[in-house]
Give the backbone structure.
Amino acid sequence: MNKEDKKHYEAKSEIFKALSHPTRLWIVDQLADGEKCVCEFVDKLDVDFSTISKHLSVLRHAGIIVSDKRGKQVYYSLQVTCVLSFMNCVDAVLESIRN
Amino acid sequence: MNKEDKKHYEAKSEIFKALSHPTRLWIVDQLADGEKCVCEFVDKLDVDFSTISKHLSVLRHAGIIVSDKRGKQVYYSLQVTCVLSFMNCVDAVLESIRN
DNA sequence: GGGATATTTGGTTATTATACCAAATAACAA
DNA sequence: TTGTTATTTGGTATAATAACCAAATATCCC
């Protein structure tokens, strides 16, 4: 693996890392049918809001979601919707393990 | 998020974790066009073979690849080929960040 | 059996990720 | 301006990952 390849795979792995947390996958699913306010996540999860904020930050920095501040609230939405279609693939992996 | 959902997302995140390393993504790409012997990875990478073996183990436990021992050598191949199509999506993310 | 090769496993250490709390910032309302 | 709500950022302790070396295992050849 040469230097250029290495950079390429490092960048790619950052995307996967961003998706490597149950809470963040849940967030992605929540955004599947449109934007959501941070406050909605806070209500539905039993973790500190600072924790949620950091998860959102990870996804945003990876380029998977984008934020939009309107008034006091911040709305997030999916930037890269092909992530959703990969979820089906992941489910297939889980199925194949189970059987 | 209820208990069942939590388990589901935890399982899912394990798949992503397995793909969250440059070397492991490289391995997946290497397997795109068919099975490869561990020794081939050892030759092409500049890391300890025990490290490679552990990366292969991570991918195998996640159900992404399968191993087949023939003689002294172990051959690995992709079990879940839809992973490859997601790579295009990931590349799209990278593109969108770059621009 | 004994030696050589291929791969995995265990141990140790360094780096990275995560959660919570507390404090900071931003926007709006009184 | 002061208070209130929404969200982010910084600090810190703990847990998970990853790399290397050394040792174990498995297979083949003599």
